[in-house]
Design brief:
By secondary structure, the chain is α/β, with parallel strands linked by helices. The protein is built from 4 helices and 9 strands; from the N terminus they run E-H-E-H-E-E-E-H-E-E-E-E-H. The chain has a single domain, classed as 3-Layer(aba) Sandwich (Rossmann fold). The strands form 2 sheets. The chain has a 6-stranded mixed beta sheet with strand order 4-3-2-5-6-7. The chain starts with 12 loop residues before the first strand and ends with a helix. It binds inosinic acid (IMP) and magnesium ion (MG).
Length: 187
């Protein structure tokens, strides 16, 4: 693809970590696994905004059993690259999850604080089960003991963007997952 101008997003990417094709293939595998595991259950798939939105849209379309969608807005990061451990709910679900089988869909598990908090909060509402699907897992950064039930890819300790993941709110629309050039941070 030709790139014009200094504003072109892909010019800020040092390397592609996961291509569109690799992601699509893995998401379909996760969808198949989830479909098998939740057959006959009352599945509610919750998208954690905004990072999970792209993964969520693809994952839901690869699930072949009945399910309902819901959305939660949280903020734990601000514009910084490191977690604060403080999770703020900016938008809650609007369907009742009591007695239902909940699958939380998140972009990445890093320290693990965000999902630990969310799982606890949702379990208080007495669902039948709560599980987590993460597109990416960065286990080297974990600060609390938690592992996703469904993981797309384990990634090294590098700050990645694209396919929903952002740096300072940008790069979410990049169709693949890449590592940013260091000069992007220092500018
Ligand atoms: P945790 O609470 O530390 O597990 O934070 C998870 C959240 O941190 C994710 O939902 C992302 O918003 C953000 N995050 C962690 N690592 C990255 C990364 O490499 N790129 C972009 N966002 C990240
Ligand atoms: Mg996020």
């Amino acid at each position: 693809m030709t790139m014009w101008g200094k504003e072109f997003m892909a010019q800020d990417i040092e390397k592609v970590l996961l291509s569109e094709e690799e992601i699509a293939k893995r998401v379909q595998e996760l969808g198949d696994q989830i479909s098998a595991d939740y057959e006959g259950k009352e599945l509610i798939v919750i998208c954690v905004l905004k990072g999970a939105s792209i993964f969520f849209a693809d994952l839901c379309r690869s699930i072949s059993v009945h399910m309902k969608m819901d959305f939660m807005g949280i903020s734990s990061y601000g514009d910084a690259q490191k977690t604060s451990g403080i999770v703020k709910i900016t938008k809650d679900t609007d369907t009742s999850i009591t007695g239902k089988d909940v699958l939380i869909v998140e972009d990445i598990m890093d320290s693990g604080y965000t999902l630990t908090y969310l799982i606890k909060m949702l379990k208080d509402r007495q669902p039948n089960s709560v599980k987590v699907a993460c597109l990416l897992d960065k286990p080297s950064r974990r600060e609390v003991e938690i592992t996703p039930d469904y993981t797309g890819f384990v990634v090294p300790n590098e700050f990645v963007v694209g396919f929903g993941l952002d740096y300072a709110g940008k790069y979410r629309n990049l169709p693949y997952i890449g590592v940013l050039k260091p000069e992007v941070y220092s500018n």
